[in-house]
Amino acid sequence: MSLHLSLDAYEIAARMALEDGGQLVIFVSFPSAGVTYDEILGREVFLFDQAGIAAWQIDPERGTTEGRTHEFDRTIPTTEPFVTVWQANGLAYASRMNGDTFRIDMETGVGTYSGWART
Length: 119
Description:
The protein is an all-beta fold. Helices cover 0% and strands 39% of the residues. It is built from no helices and 9 strands. The chain has strands spanning 12-17, 23-27, 45-48, 54-57, 59-60, 82-88, 91-96, 100-104, 110-116. The strands form 2 sheets. Strands 5-9-8-7-6 form a 5-stranded mixed β-sheet, with no helix packed on it. The chain is globular, with a radius of gyration of 14 Å.
């Protein structure tokens, strides 16, 4: 599924190259004071294939910890921005600014809460 989005649609905050030539990209959703890109806020992670075509935008599990000392609460909606992506043991992860970390299903873009990490 193409999202009709190019790599230059927004400023890039972070990217991670993938073995297949694609890349995970985090766009900046709040480029300046008083300016936010609501259409990507809280869902800034995209998968681009090797041709630069967007395959999906992350679909994170609803909820937040509101910080490392709280349990993940699925009843609290959030648009906390994603700030980093990485791979470990063959799996892809993305973390929000507050440390909430999600394992990413690379086929669908679904993000499942996996714990808290210092970002």
